[in-house]
Design goal:
about 130 residues; alpha+beta; Nucleoside Triphosphate Pyrophosphohydrolase; three-stranded mixed sheet; 3 strands; NUDIX_hydrolase-like_dom_sf; Nudix hydrolase domain-containing protein; NUDIX_hydrolase_dom
């Protein structure tokens, strides 16, 4: 429950989503990711992240110090956003962490979300090193 509680706190801190909109027992743990990304040559990120998923309508109030933009989009819109980021179009930038999740997990999870079979792809034994 600790990871789910932490996710609930971070979603409030970054997106302003209240705990009432994010019941702890609705988080679906899907996997773990050892994430490493350089920043300015002196600092960077190196962390073990848990990939949790939840499908729910929520109210958001994003923290502008943490989040540049929030959008709801379908799969094709996400693919177009990734294409624009790759091409450097329209100033689109994606965080390295989000990009790793999109490229390695999200697109394959999408069908399972639509079919209601997301639990089938859960793998909490493997630590994916990306």
């Amino acid at each position: 429950m600790g990871v789910r509680n932490a996710a609930q706190r971070k979603l409030f801190d970054e997106l302003g989503i209240t705990a009432e909109d994010l019941p702890i027992d609705h988080f679906i743990p899907l996997g773990r990711l050892l994430y490493k990304a350089p920043s300015d040559g002196k600092w960077g990120e190196h962390e073990l992240d848990y990939l949790l998923f939840m499908v729910r309508d929520v109210k958001m109030d994003p923290n502008s110090e943490e989040v540049a933009d929030v959008k709801y989009m379908n799969r094709d819109q996400l693919k177009e956003l990734v294409r624009k980021a790759d091409a450097g179009e329209d100033g689109v930038k994606l965080s390295p962490w989000f990009r790793l999740v999109v490229d390695n997990f999200l697109m394959s999870w999408w069908d399972h979300v639509e079919q209601g079979t997301l639990q089938e792809v859960a793998d909490m034994k493997t630590i994916h090193k990306l």
